[in-house]
Write a structure and sequence with these properties.
It contains 18 helices and 23 strands. The protein is an alpha/beta fold. Strand 21 and strand 22 form a beta hairpin.
């Protein structure tokens, strides 16, 4: 065992650990010890995310307290009035979430900082709203989003209710690293912590209701909804009914908070398996749409009934295109109305924006960058129109500076009702969009590579692509290569700078405007390969995607 790793292990063995962690540590073999101590869980722009357990590369009470103290030190340095303005804290349904949230609150309160805490599960977008509404200097959300049950995480927010961009995340990282003794961080058990449940619930839901564009019938569609055992169960059903949607059918088996997600393979609306129970209920009641939100309810996935009575799962790109197109046709706007998406989101947004005189801005992957752009509009004559990304997240109004499945769901139900009145399903609408703008089809290949060995394999794959000058792929010419890690693009053998912040993303653009991109996930142990193409027709686009996928996977699998 490496000497530095052994020193960390010895330090933990000598500490007065809580009994469950001590028992786990004592039972670990060398391989398990290496995985738990071979690295320190990294704090990034998405905060922390990792497997729950003992060790420096795990989520546990000591890592949470250390991170909270580091975040506190960052806040008091950045904001002179940090103690008085305080921090808002929320948590999801996962193992240890309530414990981690309470510990964070007690650490902050012990230093005299005002703390606002939800007493029970609340969704991520509501936490973002709470930070803004209460004028806090920051926020903490204990969640691992859509990861498997053995994970938990710790997301932090700035005073605008936005996740930290790299510049500030790096500052927090330095403060965390400066905390030398994680085992003796005391929290105040008698702290004055203000519970904010109904106060924020009512304000947040009122704002969500305000995003409606048209007054639609609402009683003409049947909606199946599942929170996948997560925080969506707190508000979604009664929000839809309060807004007049008469026929809302919750998936009862999944309308309970369950840290084990016992009815699911994965609690992720991007996965078809997450819709198994929804599909069953949908067929029983002849639903028009099936809606699933992930455990912290920032993402929304849908399935829509087609003309044959079958349900078609829509991608984040497809759902985003439907919502953007509807807003462009029905919501007042001009050239100073801004739409935001990311560099790995479908190019169909560009076509829709150009036709409807909307300004499109693309950001790096991660909704924090869209939240950052929303902040830049304040005090200008420009307005936020819509923001979305391919990974099932969008925001309609920036009173929340993160993905918001409640806004997304309410708008989607309006769109479904609007087109149902006109004899169309959402699948019909999507087909019409393709007919008008072209067959923009996309796919994402997720390559799971867990543990330290997986992290090293991802580095080797990215290095291989960075050091290879590909001229074509799957029979199509590559005309531009964008390396966001090195901040340089190459086109026609000429180099030009990329002005977006550094990020480990590679994008290869074809002569017809399609592209593929590689990016290690910032929240899960996997490499993501994005493929996007605009074909002459659906068959043409699907065939090329499949050909390109096979070629890329052959290259990846041959990298040892």
């Amino acid at each position: 065992m490496d000497k530095k790793i052994q020193l960390k292990i010895d330090e933990w063995k000598q500490a007065n650990l809580e009994p469950s962690l001590k028992k786990e540590l004592d039972s670990m073999d060398e391989k398990a010890l290496y995985d738990a101590f071979g690295a320190d869980i990294s704090f990034g722009t998405a905060g922390l995310r990792g497997i729950i357990g003992v060790g420096t590369n795990r989520m546990n009470i000591y890592i949470v307290k250390k991170t909270t103290l580091g975040f506190f030190n960052y806040m008091v340095k950045r904001y002179p009035d940090a103690l008085e303005r305080g921090v808002a804290i929320a948590y999801d349904c996962r193992r240890k979430s309530k414990e981690f949230a309470r510990a964070s609150a007690e650490v902050l309160s012990s230093f005299g900082m005002k703390v606002y805490l939800f007493s029970d599960l609340r969704p991520t977008p509501e936490l973002s709203f709470a930070v803004r509404s209460l004028k806090c200097v920051g926020g903490i959300m204990i969640t691992a989003s859509h990861n498997p049950p053995q994970y938990n995480g710790y997301k932090v927010y700035d005073d605008a209710g936005c996740q930290l961009i790299p510049e500030y995340a790096d500052m927090v990282t330095k403060e965390i690293e400066n905390v030398k003794d994680m085992f003796n961080i005391q929290g105040s058990k008698n702290a004055e912590i203000k519970i904010i449940d109904k106060e924020i619930d009512d304000k947040y839901l009122s704002q969500v209701k305000s995003i409606a564009v048209n007054d639609v019938k609402k009683d003409n569609i049947k909606i199946v909804y599942t929170p996948l055992h997560g925080t969506g169960l707190v508000h979604m059903e009664h929000l839809l009914k309060d807004c007049g949607y008469k026929y809302v059918y919750p998936v009862k088996e999944q309308m309970v908070a369950d840290s084990e997600f016992s009815t699911l393979k994965l609690p992720n609306p991007e996965e078809p398996s997450a819709f198994e129970l929804s599909l069953k209920l949908g067929k029983e009641i002849d639903a028009d749409i099936l809606i699933a939100t992930d455990p912290d309810a920032d993402r929304m996935g849908i399935a829509a009934k087609d003309n044959n009575g079958e349900y078609q799962l829509l991608t984040g790109n497809q759902t985003g295109a439907i919502l953007l197109n509807y807003l462009a046709l029905n919501k007042k706007h001009d050239k100073n109305s801004y739409v935001y998406n990311t560099i790995v989101t479908s190019n169909i947004a560009k076509a829709i924006c150009e036709k409807h005189n909307l300004t499109l801005v693309q950001t790096l992957t991660g909704f924090k960058y869209i939240g950052e752009q929303a902040a830049l509009l304040e005090g200008t004559n420009k307005s936020f129109f819509f923001g979305y990304e391919e990974s099932y997240g969008c925001v309609v109004s920036p009173f929340v500076r993160d993905k918001d499945s409640f806004q997304a769901t309410l708008l989607l139900c309006e769109v479904a009702s609007y087109y149902k009145e006109r004899g169309k399903t959402l699948v019909n609408v999507l087909d019409e969009i393709y007919e008008e703008y072209g067959y923009y089809l996309e796919d994402v290949e997720n390559i799971a590579l867990a543990g330290l060995e997986g992290s090293e394999k991802i580095k080797r794959i990215m290095a291989h692509f960075q050091n290879s000058d590909f001229k074509e792929m799957a029979g199509k010419k590559i005309i531009r290569i964008e390396d966001y890690d090195k901040s340089v693009a190459k086109e026609n053998e000429k180099l030009e700078p990329i002005t977006l912040p550094k990020s480990l993303v590679l994008r290869y653009i074809f002569s017809d405007g399609g592209y593929f991109a590689l990016r290690p996930s910032g929240t899960e142990p996997k490499l993501k390969i994005y493929i996007a193409i605009c074909g002459k027709n659906k068959k043409d686009a699907q065939e090329f995607i499949e050909k390109l996928r096979k070629e890329l996977l052959t290259i990846v699998n041959n990298i040892k």
